Amino acid sequence: MIGSAYLAAPDFERPLAEELERCGVAISSWHGRLALSPQAPAASAWALEVWTAPRLIEIASIKQAADALRGIQRNWGAYEAGHHRRMALITKHLPPLARRPLRFPEPAPAGHLGAWTLLDPGTLLASPTTTSRFVNGEIRFEEDHVGPPSRAYLKLWEALTRMGEWPGPGERCIDLGASPGGWTWVAASLGAEVLAIDKAPLAPTVTQMPGVSFRAGSAFAEPPAPVDWLLCDVIAYPERTLRMVQNWIAAAPPRHIVCTIKFQGATDHAAAKAFAAIPGGRVAHLCHNKHELTFMWSACAPADPVLPPQP
To answer: Which of 116, 146, 195, 245 has the fewest CB atoms found within 10 Å of its own CB?
Structure first.
């Protein structure tokens, strides 16, 4: 019996397994990067998506597999961990899934999407519902190879897309640990006013953008002040970043927060849990994250479907 499944990002199976173990979720087996559990689905920060209603379907042919999936619903995303030729043939018999890269700030697709894979040539695992609107939980964008000074901008694009909100004209942002300016570039490109703070300078092209100002200094020495958006991608121990975020929320709560939780060495699951426990916030491993999580806090409910936390 499979009660839930959790898809890890490439090379991040270990933190997912550690998180599930800490939450009391047993893993019966792995199918590639997909952790299979006999238990009911639970919230997971390290899973790109959780398969919330998996079912096993015995199949004898390509047509039978496609008919079984079509009989449940129209839209399916495939996760391949083997049997690539057979999966390709099944996909060919399913309705086409037109999912082009997003052109930020284009909203996330609203359509329902299930997930499926082949455990072996005769066994289909399909979940009509997952916690993501994207195939394998991966958000792909039409990238900008000219404007941003680093690829860190993709993390903020993804976080804002998941939140369903982004900075705009007339809004004020503080970007802590801003250098070389990827996140400042995102907010300024959307028309917001940005105060970038870092000991290192911004890229000149970002400094010259309308609405951007820079102040040399430490991200952690900046006193909380009323802003619409608090952005932070600073390299620091999770406990220090947590205290900084808690201080801002207590003293001068912004309307929105996007903050990276960076891990050095072993994953600090306790700190991640403390971030997740902040009312109004959520923690996720974005597909553009490395060994880090992203904390998203807003007065509005999260756009992505989420599961209740594990007791």
So the answer is: 146
